[in-house]
Design goal:
Order of helices and strands: EHEHEHEHEHEH
Largest sheet: 6 strands, parallel
Structural class: alpha/beta
Shape: globular
CATH topology: Rossmann fold
CATH class: Alpha Beta
Strand content: 15-25%
Radius of gyration: 14 Å
Helix content: 40-55%
Number of helices: 6
Strand order of the largest sheet: 2-1-3-4-5-6
């Protein structure tokens, strides 16, 4: 796995997902890359934590907001313009991916492929590159 430097970890990530099992799995994956991995389970906690924690990256479940899912991404970008945002989702439609990227996300990872895609996505987003789960492009070409 490629890291910032040999043995060096990126400092802080905040994960926001309503599903406890998903939070735990993502945390386990990201602990190999980040010094600090924090978890929240709702939108209010996400915004409260962002004010105090100042993470390098936020990984957000697109369905964190019950209504107007894209609004979370837009609100994050507006309130924290330098924050790197990576979206997790069960939605694999290209229109959803495009809308998230247009709203300010730098990456989009399908939950079903997070075990393979999350670390490469984090590393790309940390370098300022956009990442989209490869399965999305493949599925849309079929």
């Amino acid at each position: 796995m490629e890291n910032q430097a040999v043995g060096e970890k990126i400092s802080r990530v905040l994960i926001a997902d309503r599903h406890q099992n998903m939070l735990e799995g993502i945390r386990t994956l990201l602990e190999s890359v980040f010094d600090v991995v924090l978890m929240v389970a709702d939108k209010a906690s996400l915004f409260d934590s962002l004010k105090t924690v100042l993470p390098d990256l936020v990984v957000v479940d697109l369905s964190l907001a019950i209504t107007d899912e894209l609004h979370v991404t837009q609100e994050l970008r507006k309130k924290f313009p330098d924050l790197k945002i990576l979206i997790l989702s069960v939605h694999d439609e290209q229109t959803v991916v495009d809308a998230c990227l247009s709203a300010g996300a730098m990456g989009f990872v399908l939950k079903r492929s997070a075990i393979n895609d999350l670390i490469p996505a984090v590393l790309d987003v940390q370098k300022g590159r956009t990442y989209v789960s490869p399965a999305i492009n493949f599925e849309n070409e079929l």
